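#structure-requests
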Amino acid sequence: MAQWNKISQDYLNQERSLFEVFICSDQFGNIGACGGNNQFELNVSAGIMTEMANVHKFGSVVTTNADYDTVWSEGGAYEFPETAGTLTVVSASTQDNPTGTGTSSIVVQGLDANYDEIEERIILNGTTGVAGTTNFLRTHRAYAKDGNTNVGNITISIGSTVTCAIAAEMGQSQVAFYTVPRGKSGYLKKLTATQNKNQDNSVRLFQRQNGGLNGPFRVVSEINLYGSNMIIPFSFPIYLPEQTDLEVRTYTGSNCTVSATFDMLIVDNSVLGIGT
C-alpha cells in the first residue's frame, strides 16, 4: 500500500521506511468511532449492537364510558395475565385464512413465565379460533405474517382474556403497553399523546416493577390534553428494571380517539454490570 510523506512530499520508500496504520472503533466494534459511538441510534435500530434494542410502542383507542381506557385498539382497561397460558387466535372475518383474501398467519411476540422473550407463528382459520402451543405470560406485539393485510379484527386471548389484538386492515397490533424482559433494563426516552376532540383528557403512563402481578401501579408521567398533542422527551432516560409492566391509560369522555407512543432503549444487564 503506497504511503505519502507530507513533509517530503514524496512516497515513502517501502523497503526502508516503517509506517503504521490504525483504525478507531467503539466498544461494540463500530469502525470510525474515535472517542465515541459511530451512528449509535442507527446501529441499535439495525440490530448491529446485539446488547441493545430499541422498543417503539404505539396505540390508539376510541374511548368508552369506563373509568379509564388503556390505549389499545380493543378499548377498555387492559388486564395483564397472572399466569402463563397458550394463545387462542380468531378473526372477525372468514377471509383471514390461507385460502382467503386476508392474512393467512400472524406472529405473536411476548414473554414466557420466566419473562424471557418468545414468539409464535399461528395459521388462521377465519372466524374459528386456533390454539397455539407456546405458553405466554405477556403478549406485547402481533403482526400479519403471510398473505395480505387482515380483513377482520383479530384477537389474541389467554383463556377468556384478550391480551393483544390487530384491528381490521392494520396488519399490526396497536397497543401502548409493554413488559421489560428478564435480564434486561429499560430506559424510557420519550412519551407522546394526541386526541381528536376538544375535551379534557389526562394521558398517564403507569409502571409496575419487578413482576409484581397484583402489586401497585405507579404513574411515571402524565400529559394533559384538550384537543391537542404533546411530546415529552426525557432529558435523562427513566430507568425501568427487568419485569416492569408499562401501560398507557387515558381518562376522558366517550367516543374520543386517543393515540399514544413511547420509546425505550432496552439494554442487556450484563453490559451494565447488573446481576454480575
